[in-house]
Design a protein that fits this description.
Layout (H helix, E strand, L loop, with lengths): L3 H10 L4 E4 L9 H5 L5 E4 L3 H13 L4 E6 H6 L1 H10 L5 E6 L2 H5 L7 H11 L4 E4 L6 H14 L3 E6 L1
Helix pairs in contact: 1-8, 3-5
């Protein structure tokens, strides 16, 4: 299982300098680990569109940020994402928590967030990979993050919740 210390280690290994986030759901559990890391700067945004804009600004300033948001926030932030990805052509990296994914897949939830996350990313033509913290290791997370980084384009890692 991938926990907070594993996330911090993976981000450090991949040269991430900043984590910009709206800490809700599963991702919020990592706050203590992220904020105590001397090599990562944690920036809390008020809305997901703001998080994406901050991430874009950090890239322009030479930083290597990762924006962490939940799937519903991804939906809200579409225009900011469009501007960063298509107008500015910045290689923004996202970690998107897909709320209720397991329950939705097993028919135990009516939360429709999991049903729309992939189609939204496909519509914006943002490549993505799935990370299931119960099935993947820290090494798998590092490999997925590095693959996204070397593409030179925006990409998302979808975090199974």
């Amino acid at each position: 299982m991938i926990d907070g210390p594993t996330i911090v280690s993976a981000l450090q290994t991949c040269g991430i300098t900043h984590v910009v986030w709206v800490p809700d759901s599963h991702l919020g559990r990592w706050e203590a680990d992220l904020s105590s890391s001397p090599s990562l700067r944690l920036i809390r945004a008020t809305r997901e569109g703001e998080a994406i804009a901050i991430g874009g600004g950090l890239i322009l300033g030479g930083a290597r940020p990762l924006v962490m948001i939940q799937c519903t926030g991804l939906f809200e932030a579409g225009d900011a994402l469009r501007n960063i990805v298509y107008d500015l052509k910045l290689p923004l990296l996202l970690l998107v928590g897909v709320r209720s994914y397991r329950a939705f897949q097993s028919g135990q939830s009516t939360d429709n967030c999991p049903a729309f996350t992939e189609p939204i990313l496909k519509a914006w033509q943002v490549p993505y990979a799935w990370i299931d913290p119960e099935k993947h290791s820290g090494a798998d997370f590092i490999a997925a993050l590095r693959k996204a980084q070397v593409s030179g384009n925006a990409a998302a890692l979808l975090w199974v919740e």
